[in-house]
Design goal:
Number of strands: 8
Radius of gyration: 26 Å
Distance between the termini: 73 Å
Strand content: 5-15%
Shape: globular
Length: 559
């Protein structure tokens, strides 16, 4: 429906809805982004590599702790570095690229659904569904490369779909933009950038009986992708000829095919975690299924969304290595399908499945709130999540308020109110979650505040030694890139085997000798997880200073 043909009431509702979704995004993704400390290992790593890029001026070869780091291409580091130069070295800057990538993905879905699946309100609802997926929120408010990668994949397939649906001069522009997006996704995570769009687009074009059109036009996105990805690909090869061998073999072949793949899980892993990823919309799946109907898949956008979800999901499921974040590129099409199904279901006058789902969601929220309150009050089995009472109070208030909104949603007769109230419930929790990180998570995964309390004990002549988990944090907080590694290699296994880097790795049984050897050059500082430190203690000399934040946390010791 054209905007010009809408009534005044509809215009007003569209304006309010647009402002509401912008406010939703700012409230849960942007405003509280810098409140939580950075976590290890991912956030520490993806803040330190860009910091070293800025400090060294080397924007071609990624380095972590001054060592070559070949696990990913360079785009994600560039985005974080630009953000750090814009906003400063802080948690907000490090997480901002993930958050803005999530917002841009939602914007892509808005434009796609607005044009091909019901107009403005459909676009707004689709974007809302996507932004409120639990996995989308968790990844979008955390510094990892999955959100930018998913954005570029989303852009590649959305632009291609626009090209397929165009008959005028814009067709070639959309094809070129699709290729540019593929090139950017390649620079973010590698060869998946080409595989995922192909396993989406080819089945869709076969289903549409337009395979010849694909073959005739494929050269445009292919050329665009090559032009975007080639310059850095050549430069990194000239600087570090071994990069592509390591990256292709270790980060693609081994993860996908080998028995020893990192994060190995069964083929059913993603089927089991998908309901959790889709919360709170999981409870509305029966309503959405009833509203989809077979005829909906006669529409090109629904066929495209099905291919977009199904084939990447199967691809990731047969891969040996699995993490829950891997299926993030599969969630945008589910937002399209779920939004269309729920909208059609409610528009047909049916409400029962929606109401039951909303009440079940409210029940779950209440159970979570009561469980949290019980643990906080009783400290059952030592499980007392917070030492500051305002945190559980805020979280419980958000949960109970959300439960009320969900119950009101189940009782509302107006369709717009039903959807609005349902979306408010998870929004309250997501906003509060930024401020309510459990104490045990901070103690085990967020060493920043603890290490900064000892900032003045680190001088230029200090030699810093860490276990593999804390190297990135020590480098970032103390502005160093010369930290020694004690014990396991961790993610540095490949880089420390270079001849110019082997000296940076120490064995625990040689640490006493290392301390004595450097006795005249300044204090040797050891930073490690408490449990690791205890395991090494028989190899260590007596420290002149030692401090720990908890039995499950970290140790700072000087010798």
């Amino acid at each position: 429906m054209s905007v010009n043909n809408l009534g005044a009431d509809q215009h007003g509702f569209i304006k309010k809805s647009s402002l509401a979704i912008i406010g939703l995004f700012l409230l849960i993704y942007i405003a509280p982004l810098g409140t939580a400390p950075l976590a290890i290992p991912d956030e520490a790593r993806y803040s330190e590599i860009p910091r070293e890029m800025i400090a060294s001026g080397d924007w071609i070869v990624p380095h972590l702790n001054g060592l070559r780091y070949f696990e990913k291409p360079v785009m994600g580091y560039w985005l974080n570095a630009i953000s750090i130069m814009t906003f400063g070295e802080n948690g907000f800057a490090v997480r901002f690229p993930s958050a803005i990538a999530t917002g841009l993905s939602a914007l892509m879905l808005f434009f796609m659904a607005r044009r091909f699946s019901g107009g403005y309100l459909s676009g707004i609802f689709t974007a809302s569904v996507f932004l409120l997926f639990l996995e989308v929120f968790a990844v979008g408010s955390f510094s990892v490369l999955d959100a930018p990668f998913s954005l570029f994949i989303t852009a590649a397939v959305v632009f291609y779909f626009f090209a397929v649906m165009e008959t005028n001069s814009l067709k070639n522009l959309f094809l070129a933009l699709s290729g540019v997006s593929c090139g950017l996704s390649f620079l973010t995570k590698g060869f998946l950038a080409f595989a995922l769009p192909l396993i989406i687009i080819v089945p869709f074009m076969v289903w549409e009986r337009r395979l010849k059109d694909l073959l005739k036009s494929l050269w445009i996105p292919a050329l665009s992708a090559v032009l975007v990805s080639l310059p850095w690909s050549v430069l990194i090869h000239l600087r570090e000829p071994d990069f592509w061998h390591f990256f292709f073999w270790n980060e693609h072949i081994k993860r996908f095919m080998t028995e020893g793949a990192q994060h190995k899980e069964s083929a059913l892993y993603f089927i089991k975690v998908l309901p959790l990823s889709l919360l709170p919309w999981t409870f509305l799946l029966p309503a959405a299924w009833s509203g989809i109907g077979k005829r909906m898949f006669n529409e090109s956008i629904m066929r495209f969304a099905l291919c977009w979800f199904l084939f990447p999901f199967l691809f990731f499921s047969i891969s040996s290595g699995k993490l829950i974040t891997y299926i993030l590129p599969c969630l945008p099409p589910l937002a399209i399908i779920l939004a269309a199904g729920i909208r059609n279901y409610l528009s047909s006058g049916r409400k029962r499945a929606f109401n039951i789902g909303a009440m079940l969601f409210a029940l779950l929220i209440c159970i979570i709130a009561m469980t949290l309150a019980a643990f906080q009050i009783t400290g059952f089995h030592g499980l007392k999540p917070y030492s500051h009472i305002w945190k559980p109070a805020l979280l419980i208030a958000a949960l109970l308020s959300g439960a009320l909104c969900t119950l009101f949603s189940s009782r509302a007769s107006d369709l717009k109110k039903k959807i609005l109230l349902y979306t408010i419930a998870p929004s309250l929790f997501m906003f509060a979650a930024h401020f309510c990180i459990p104490d045990v998570t901070i103690e085990r995964k967020m060493p920043g505040d603890f290490l900064l309390t000892h900032y003045n004990r680190i001088g230029q002549n200090n030699i810093i030694v860490t276990d593999e988990a804390l190297a990135s944090s020590a480098c970032r907080l103390y502005k160093r890139s010369d930290v020694y590694l004690l014990g396991n290699y961790g993610e540095f296994e490949y880089s420390v085997n270079y001849e110019d880097s082997k000296y940076r790795h120490l064995h625990p049984d040689k640490f006493r000798e290392f301390v004595l050897k450097n006795n005249g050059t300044g204090l040797v500082t050891l930073i490690a997880r408490t449990k690791t430190y205890k395991a090494w203690k028989r190899f260590l000399p007596d420290p002149s200073f030692v401090d720990t934040n908890s039995e499950d946390g970290f140790v700072f010791a000087q010798f």
